[in-house]
Design brief:
Radius of gyration of chain B: 24 Å
Structural class of chain A: mainly alpha
Number of strands of chain B: 24
Number of strands of chain A: 0
Helix content of chain A: over 70%
Distance between the termini of chain B: 57 Å
Strand content of chain A: under 5%
Distance between the termini of chain A: 13 Å
Strand content of chain B: 15-25%
Order of helices and strands of chain A: HHHHHHHHHHHHH
Shape of chain A: flat
Oligomer: heterodimer
Largest sheet of chain A: none
Strand order of the largest sheet of chain B: 9-10-11-2-12-20-13
Largest interface: A-B, 58 and 63 residues
Number of helices of chain B: 16
Structural class of chain B: alpha+beta
Chain lengths: 318, 538
């Protein structure tokens, strides 16, 4: 067990190191001189030279990398070239906002997707099935930026039910925070709702065909109890796995959703930083995102190995 | 990978879809407010207190007057960092923290500035000549300063008496007062500078109607009413929140839904909806900047490098460039691309400047363009590659230019390029023609010198002509306004002749605001001055 853990952790560290190298090199491969981006309208040769010197942009890339990595190891991701604000602090501020959006949109997706999937499966071939399939297909096909703009137009401008955009920190006012998050979470959640609905429908259909459901029916249980307790519960397992797999996708979907609803989250931070060639911010944010994925994967591996000794043993002998 | 592509496509399509989504519906209501399009005048009294939220089109950079480089940052500074001089509604320079206009010596090399008395910084410390000296010297010396070039002629700053400073110049420098009416003239609290040093921008303290309260990266900048401001009687609002909303249609939507009270730099495509909306009004100001097409004539090795001669026909023969200009119809461009909302022009100086010369831009003349091409002996169609921004408006502009120039015998190939990349290509001299503009400076020198002088920092066209250089140097060292005006008129004639920049139009700046807001000042410099703004008393 110990050697398995060590091996997995070692692999994760290597992955993290590779990610940091790729991020660093990738950012420098972006077309356009970072000094020019920063200089704005004041781009005299002297000003450009000062900027390059101040941020060490003239040093060889490996030297820049070692300097940055050294600081990053101590938790210091540097300062934003554009605003001069501390990158680590900024990221710590932004991550909870995007996580909240992601969690709420999963909630929306579950609340819509699961009942719709159950209804579709239990009414297979009937109107409700076709209707929820059609809505699901639409949910998958409609780009969320378009849906977002349409909802803003109708629900925020025509009839002023929801705010058009913006964000209120949870600690400032929890109720207003949720109120501002409803539309974005709905927009981000629709595509996932469609995925869940389709997954729910197909695994429900499978369960409804299974022997134990036939047995339950044979015992004379009510249809409600057959569908609700027996088939439904067993179908949930795959759906939960699918939700887990889609979380990564949600984070990237959040990038667009945050732009439309002006939510100052992680996605917004990265997009703005790329356009402004704010190298420390891009590097820091992508590194933190990569670290997040790697840590989650590591934890999943560990949990699996605890649950299923075969994985652990295979890992040890390999 | 597919997800990634979906994302990029989505982002590219966003402005288009957004524009359609927000303008698709015809306006059914008529404006209830007949003053909707009128600027400034509003006699309703404001009530004390209240908060407003202002949507900014971009995120400001460091809130440090020495380091700041963005236009949008100046909007925030305009409300918390006063300057030695300011520009009024007529773009005239007026004293702000200075007590009077500068006293310039006969030879033009010493400039004496009296300081306003009884002024305190927003930390309660006193403004005096020593503080002015400290700030100007910091502007000149701090690493990464964006003020070094504009203050280059200032050799030393002297404290003459506690309330008077003197700037000693290496040569007469007419734009100096205008430069001191921008960030170089902002005076920072010496006490705060001692405390925060190079990190002044994290917690800036200046003289202003509002003081810095909080900044949330990528989100908002909050200013609170100052308790130390010398002119506090004029101030009404308790708090101003600048909220960053980069997408134009989203900014407009927020204004219409009342999420924000003021939204600056609205797209021309969203104006009709705003005008039609009850309870909103549109403020309009002609920008002091310009937009045009820069032609690369001699920038073969990069802006800081020796000139070369480019071989493309449009680079080697001014007749070809004039033919190109003659093929374009500025009025039609304005009507088709900007819904007629901008000011067609062939000058770098906006019409609202006292230095603006009277120019006849001439009409579109395809026949004359053709004969100029014939005279130049070039083979038609003349290939022209036009680099421009990636947004829908820029692309539309490119298409219109392409169609117009085609009739005269040009084959224009539009090349939409992401902004920073395009700056890089321009800096390297790796372009044929480039649609780019300038946000503008109050003094005409700031709109011309760096673009046309052979050693100018922004001389992307690589034009170099000793005569033009001499005229530009003479104009910036001439103090007399009338004389300068004539010099700039001559310069504009000369640069129109060589046609290294083909000026097309001046933008109009549109700011939308709730009609509850009174006392908002919005001039041609595009800054929002909220000092006297307030919510209308009922």
């Amino acid at each position: 067990m110990k050697s398995y853990l060590l091996k997995r952790t070692g692999a994760a560290l290597v992955a993290l190191w590779l990610a940091s190298v790729i991020v660093f090199a990738g950012v420098r491969a972006l077309p356009g001189d970072a000094a020019l981006a920063l200089a704005g309208e004041e781009r005299s040769p002297e000003a450009l030279a000062e900027i390059r010197e101040k941020y060490g942009l003239d040093d060889p890339v490996p030297v820049q990398y070692i300097r940055w990595a050294g600081h990053a190891l101590r938790g210091d991701l540097g300062q934003s070239v554009r605003t001069g604000l501390d990158v680590s602090d900024t990221i710590v501020d932004k991550v909870p906002i995007t996580l909240e959006l992601a969690v709420l949109s999963v909630l929306v997706a579950v609340l819509i997707g699961i009942p719709a999937g159950v209804v579709a499966a239990s009414r297979k071939g009937k109107f409700a099935d076709y209707a929820s399939n059609a809505v699901g297909l639409a949910g998958l096909s409609i780009p969320n930026f378009w849906l977002g703009l349409v909802l803003i137009l109708f629900l925020a401008i025509r009839i002023e039910v929801f705010p058009a955009s913006g964000y209120v920190p949870f600690l400032e006012s929890p109720l207003r925070n949720i109120y501002y998050m409803i539309l974005p979470a709905f927009v981000l959640g629709t595509a996932l709702a469609a995925v869940i609905m389709r997954q729910m429908r197909s695994s429900m259909l499978e369960s409804l065909d299974a022997d134990y459901v036939r047995t339950a029916r044979a015992k004379g249980l009510s249809e409600w109890s057959v569908v609700g307790s027996h088939a439904f519960r067993n179908s949930l397992i795959t759906v939960v796995t699918v939700i887990g797999l889609q979380l990564g996708g949600l984070i990237s979907g959040a990038v667009v959703t945050e732009q439309i609803f002006v939510i100052p989250g992680f996605g917004n931070l990265i997009v703005a930083a790329v356009f402004q060639r704010d190298l420390p911010v891009i590097q820091g944010a992508v590194l933190v995102a990569a670290a997040g994925y790697i840590v989650v994967n590591l934890l999943v591996d560990i949990v699996y190995s605890l649950l299923n000794p075969r994985i652990r043993i295979a890992g040890e002998t390999a | 990978m597919p997800r990634r592509r979906k994302l990029i496509t989505a982002m590219l399509a966003l402005p288009l879809v957004a524009a359609v989504a927000c303008t698709g519906e015809p306006a059914t209501e008529t404006s209830a407010d007949p003053q909707g399009q009128q600027s400034f005048a509003d006699n309703r009294p404001a009530r004390q207190g209240g908060e407003v939220t202002v949507a900014l089109a971009e995120e400001p950079d460091a809130l440090d007057p020495s380091l700041a480089r963005t236009f949008v940052g100046r909007i925030v500074f305009a409300n918390m960092c006063e300057k030695l001089y300011d520009t009024d509604a007529n773009l005239e320079l007026v004293p702000q923290l200075a007590a009077d206009m500068p006293d310039i010596s006969a030879d033009g090399t010493t400039v004496t500035i009296p300081i306003r008395r009884g002024v305190r910084f927003n930390d309660g410390t006193q403004l005096d000549a020593a503080a002015v000296k400290t700030s100007i010297e910091r502007h000149q010396n701090i690493t990464g300063s964006a003020r070094t070039a504009e203050l280059a002629p200032v050799q030393s700053v002297e404290v003459v008496d506690p309330m008077t400073v003197r700037l000693n110049l290496s040569q007469p420098f007419a734009p100096l007062t205008a430069i001191l009416a921008d960030r170089a003239g902002m005076i920072m609290s010496p006490a705060q500078l001692r405390k925060s040093g190079a990190n002044f921008g994290d917690n800036p303290v200046c003289v202003g109607p509002f003081e810095f309260a909080e900044r949330r990266a990528g989100d908002a900048i909050v200013l609170d009413r100052s308790n130390d401001y010398y002119d506090a009687d004029q101030v009404n609002l308790d708090r101003v929140t600048f909220s960053i909303i980069e997408q134009g249609p989203v900014r407009a939507a927020n204004l219409r839904s009342g999420e924000v009270d003021i939204a600056e730099r609205l797209d021309t495509t969203s104006l009709e909806d705003i005008e039609a909306e009850q309870g909103l009004r549109l403020y309009e100001a002609t920008s002091i900047g310009y937009q045009g097409i820069t032609v690369n004539v001699g920038n073969t090795n990069g802006v800081e490098q020796p000139f070369g001669q480019r071989q493309a026909p449009i680079a080697s023969d001014p007749r070809v460039r004039r033919a190109f200009e003659l093929s374009l119809d500025r009025e039609a461009i304005n009507d088709v691309v900007f819904n007629g909302r901008y000011e067609p022009s062939c000058s770098p100086i906006a019409p609202n400047s006292k230095f603006a010369p009277e120019i006849d831009c001439g009409e579109r003349d395809v026949e004359q363009a053709k004969s100029l091409l014939q005279e130049a002996g070039v083979q038609t169609p003349v290939p022209v590659e036009l680099m421009l921004a990636t947004d829908q408006t820029a692309v539309r502009l490119g298409q219109v230019v392409q169609e117009m120039a085609k009739e005269a015998g040009f084959a224009v190939n539009a090349r939409p390029t992401e902004f920073v990349s395009s700056l890089d290509l321009a800096d390297q001299g790796n372009f044929d023609t480039f649609q780019i503009g300038w946000s503008g400076r109050v003094d005409p020198d700031g709109n011309i010198y760096d673009f046309h002088h052979s050693e100018g920092a922004l001389n992307y066209s690589g034009a170099h002509d000793p005569e033009v250089d001499r005229m530009l140097e003479q104009a910036r060292t001439t103090i007399d306004t009338e004389e300068r005006r004539q010099l700039y008129a001559d310069i504009i004639d000369a640069v129109r002749e060589r046609a290294n920049i083909i000026y097309l139009y001046h933008e109009n700046l549109f700011t939308g605001a709730s009609s509850d807001i009174v006392g908002l000042q919005y001039h041609g410099d595009g800054l929002l001055r909220l000092k006297t703004a307030g919510l209308a008393a009922n």
